[in-house]
Specification:
Blueprint (H helix, E strand, L loop, with lengths): L2 H63 L1
Amino acid sequence: MRQDDIERVAADQLNQLYHYRESLIDLRTCITDEGEQNTLNFQQHMNAAVANLQATLDTALLAMKQ
């Protein structure tokens, strides 16, 4: 192989690796964003459940006092 052929092939391979790297970065960002959204949804669900439990306990305690 000639030197210029080797350089061209190497440059093409590096370009392809760059595109793979960009795709992996985008994929990681999407996965991270989805995980953060799932965490936020879970926190909101748990906050609502705790508030509901507190309201139920308050009602039960009030009923016991009467």
